[in-house]
């Protein structure tokens, strides 16, 4: 097998592994607690938007912090502005994550670890690099607010 053939085979294996990971949805319980709270909040925001109601009072009540609620709402708006298409979220009661929610969880988990490289990998090929900057800033703001509340 030539080096070119080996490289092609490795690339095919990497692609197949990525597709296999996408075929098995992640469970919300498997996420970092900050990511899980954000994802539930995002689902709650979606419910309120559909009902044409302000989500802030309920977010503040559920998150026990007006500051965290504000950071959550700001991040959800930033995600909506930077995402290439409409964000798909599961129902509030569903344990399985959509592909968008899996990406968001990876972004938040990497920010919790202060790992910008992992964050960039999470959005690579999906969101243009310059659009990742406001997302990184928003995720860091949310993580800092969550950690300050502990």
SSE map:
Elements: H1 3-23, H2 33-50, H3 56-63, H4 66-82, H5 99-112, H6 116-123, H7 129-149
Detailed description of the structure:
By secondary structure, this protein is mainly α. It has helices at residues 3-23, 33-50, 56-63, 66-82, 99-112, 116-123, 129-149. The longest helix is centred in the N-terminal third of the chain and has 21 residues, at 3-23. The protein is elongated and about 65 Å long.
Mean pLDDT: 90
Q: What order do the SSEs take from the amino end to the carboxyl end, as H and E?
A: HHHHHHH
The total of helices stands at 7
Structural class: mainly alpha
Major β-sheet, in short?
A: none
Extract low-pLDDT stretches.
Answer: none
Task: Tell me the number of strands.
Answer: 0
The proportion of residues in beta strands is under 5%
